[in-house]
UniProtKB/TrEMBL annotation:
GO cellular component annotations of the record: plasma membrane
Protein name, as recorded: non-specific serine/threonine protein kinase
Enzyme nomenclature, EC number: 2.7.11.1
Organism: Cephalotus follicularis (Albany pitcher plant)
Class of this enzyme: transferase
Region annotation Disordered: where it falls in the sequence: 1-30, 48-99, 426-487
Amino acid sequence: MGEGPDAIQVGAWNVGESKGRKKKDSEAEESGCWIKFRFMRSCISSNARSKVDGSLSGTSSQYAESKSTNDTSRDQPVVPVVSSSTSSPAESTPSTPNVAEELKVASQLRKFSFNELKQATRNFRPESLLGEGGFGCVFKGWVNENGTAPVKPGTGLSVAVKTLNHDGLQGHKEWLAEVNYLGDLLHPNLVKLFGYCIEDDQRLLVYEFMPRGSLENHLFRRSLPLPWPTRMKIALGAAKGLAFLHEEAERPVIYRDFKTSNILLDADYNAKLSDFGLAKDGPEGDKTHVSTRVMGTYGYAAPEYVMTGHLTAKSDVFSFGVVLLEMLTGRRSMDKNRPNGEHNLVEWARPHLGERRRFYRLIDPRLEGRFSIKGSQKAIQLASQCLSRDPKARPLMSEVVETLKLLPNLKDMASSSSYFQAMQSERVGSNPNARRGTSRAQLGFLSKNGLPTRNLSIRNGPHASPFQDGYPHQSPKPHVNVRQPQK
């Protein structure tokens, strides 16, 4: 993170990175499906591998599909958790499964057997793999619409089956948190949990399948930019999900891991929050905060939470401000590939948040003026309020929802404004590439009916395929312990 009060450290960061490098080095010697096979095996416990290995040897790719349909941040490595001075005894104690006492399952959840989910995912074959997160691997499967029986691919109910990675850092306690929260909380902007499997040492969760994947995938891994109205629609849906958790649920819940990779999209780009492994009950009664170990994702954690371990709903509001800023700018919260001074999105953007007449400096240039002037100004102002260093100055999520409700339908597009055209001329005049006479095509932009298209012949252009040479940006590190810098 950048300098200043928002600065945080991640303990043992290099350990996770070196693990990833070693894994990549060893996998470089393999090819094709063997890499997928080995990767998939790591997602299943040793007791279950013998059941799966035999059926894998004869698998075919008849139903193979693109893994990008439901991005679950497969490339996010997990980092060892470092103890914090603010750790609570409950969170610092290793998890020991005690199902009878800990599992409080809502009656509407289905209980699947391991064999049913093995068949539903076609034996956890590589072609069913959707991605990997801190919890483990996620596979696509098909089950009976009203029961637990597996059905033929393409029929019945499409589901996403999340397996517990027994070698990962998120264990039984976070699996319980997912079941207990999502089994009890029902809202259109929360991913629906259909059921679970707890059998021997197996821990699996069965969710509704989200066909458009994660917001992270659409913002940072697609060649064409998300349209402005769609961005605002997604922001509104995600805000409604947080507002429900904070202000409408029977017991207030602090999400604690709000980020683009945890916002999933259905076929109509309706946003739904997923991954409740780090969620905590909010303060009740006279309490103002929850004292807890500092957990979250690098780049999204509120500064006061990092410094004190005091968790409040306003910690989530800060994280929402970071995500809203990512949606406005098209930049990641942390990006080491950018020039010095621009690695940390929040610190880079702060000086510009109050410049009403220069707001265009913050807007994603890939939109090329196809955004609402009034809408973008209101959204930038809202992001500034959410990112206030004073938690008490941040708005409630219900207030955020009211502000965002009007933004998706505003039609005052900047591209048709003479004011914006003048601002663009100023920007081009200060652009070294423009002064050298670099054309739009040379910069990687082509135009077709006024819309940007990808120039496949330009390997490093802004709209080049992110998969042409391997995407350079990695997803934010999930579920890691963050702490103050050492003095």
